Amino acid sequence: MAPRLTARFWVDAYLARLRLAGIPGFVVAHGDDDAGAVLVKLNTLDGKAVVYHRSVDLMSGERRWLVLAEGCETEVDAAIGRQRGYDPDIWVIEVEDRAGRHMLDAPGLGG
């Protein structure tokens, strides 16, 4: 079994990858450095947004990004607020891209 990356390491690597692609991304909520869960909000700058969370397939162990909420940005922000209410150690990363690019489907970002 491969060692698990810390949340902080993954967030730093993700933000660096976004910068290299010219996509603005920033930390909205700093979670637990070691084991905090991560939410990624994609803001398309038109009043709409999508928030993704990592999910693990219990059968295969594969990690993938799934949509937690999407639609009006205020509704997405409310969903993020609810998740932070359940888990104060959660990270929230906001990505701003009119074209809807988030890089979560890029190789190496599943875990």
How is the biggest beta sheet arranged?
A: 5 strands, mixed
Unreliable residue stretches: none
Task: Could you tell me the CATH topology label of the domain at 25-96.
Answer: hypothetical protein tt1805
- CATH class value of the domain at 25-96: Alpha Beta
* CATH architecture name of the domain at 25-96: 3-Layer(aba) Sandwich
**Can you write the helix and strand succession as a string?**
HEEEEHE
Amino-to-carboxy terminus distance = 13 Å
Please state the average pLDDT score: 90
Strand content: 25-35%
Helical region count? Answer: 2
Class per helix and strand makeup: alpha+beta
Cα radius of gyration in angstroms: 13 Å
Beta-strand segment tally: 5
Neighbour order of strands in the largest sheet: 1-5-2-3-4
Gist of the model:
The chain has a domain at 25-96: hypothetical protein tt1805 (3-Layer(aba) Sandwich), CATH 3.40.1530. The protein contains 2 helices and 5 strands. The chain has helices spanning 7-20, 73-86, and strands at residues 25-29, 38-43, 48-56, 63-72, 91-96.
